[in-house]
Amino acid sequence: MSRLRDAVSGAQQTTGMLDDMEELHADRRRAESFGAASDDYDRYRPRYPQALIADLITAPGLATLDVGAGTGISSVQLMQAGATVLAVEPDQRMAAVAAAKGVTAELATFEDWQPQARTFDLVVFAQSFHWVQPRPALAKVRGILNPGGRLVLLSNRIVPKSPTWADMDDIYSDYLGEARSSIVDATRLAEVTALIEDGGFTVDTRSVVEQLHYTTEDWLNLVFTYSNHLTLTASARDELRGRLAERLGGDGVDAVNDALAVVCTPA
C-alpha cells in the first residue's frame, strides 16, 4: 500500500509541477518582459560558478545548444570553457546583446526553432526551462542529442539571508499579491526531476554554494531584472524600489547562491 501511495504522490507531484510550468509558459507578458531591460539584465544577472561550467565541458569543441540564451551569459561562459555554442533566443533585443559578444544566435522560441538536421552533445537551459512547455521540449531535446549527449538545466538560486525574504514579504505583498516564493528561481527540484525522468532521462544533480554580499543598490539592480518586477507599472516599480531601499538601508544584503546543474542523460 505504501508503494501505491508513493506512486500516486509522485504522479500528483509531477502533474502539479507540469501545471505550474505550463501556466508560467502561458504568461507571455512575463516571458517577454526581459527584452526591455536587456542591458540591465546582462549587467546585473550573475554568472554561473565556473566549477559548474567546467564540469560540463568534457571535451574541446563540444557542440552545445543554449536554449533561451538571453543576453548570452551562459553562452559566453560555455564558449570560454571550450564549447562550440549555438544560442536560441526569442527576443531580438536580448539576442542582439548576445551577438555583440560574439555569440551565434538564432531568433526563435524553442518550440518554433528548426534543428535542420543539426545535433548536439549538450543542450543547456540556463534559467530558462520554465519558459518552455516541458514535455514537448524534452521530446525535442531527445531528438537532437548525439549518442552520449546530455541535457543540462542551470540555475543560480540566490536567497537573501540577512535580511530574509520574510523580512520583505509585507512590502512585496502590496505590489505582487504574493510572497517571495516566485521572486527567485524556486525550482522544486524533486518535482522537476520527476518530470524529466518521466520524459525518458536519468538525472544527476551537481551544486556549488557561494556566499555573497550585495550593496543595497546592487541587490535592487538584480531583483529588478526579475520578470514579476519588470511587469509592474513604472510607478509601482519606482515605489517598490524606494520602499525596499528604505527597508534595506545601508547594510546591503548577505545572500547564498546554491547554484545547481541538473544533468540529464537519455535513459
Automatic annotation (TrEMBL):
InterPro entries, sorted: Diverse_substrate_MTase, Methyltransf_11, SAM-dependent_MTases_sf
PANTHER family noted in UniProt: METHYLTRANSF_11 DOMAIN-CONTAINING PROTEIN, METHYLTRANSFERASE TYPE 11 DOMAIN-CONTAINING PROTEIN
Any Pfam family matching the protein: Methyltransf_11
Keywords noted in UniProt: Methyltransferase, Transferase
Transmembrane segments: none
Recorded coiled-coil stretches: none
Residues in Methyltransferase type domain copies: 65-153
GO terms (BP aspect): methylation
Similarity comment text for this entry: Belongs to the methyltransferase superfamily.
Protein name: Methyltransferase type 11 domain-containing protein
Lineage, uppermost ranks: Bacteria, Bacillati, Actinomycetota, Actinomycetes, Mycobacteriales
Entry's Gene Ontology molecular function annotations: S-adenosylmethionine-dependent methyltransferase activity
Annotated stretches, region: Disordered: 1-20
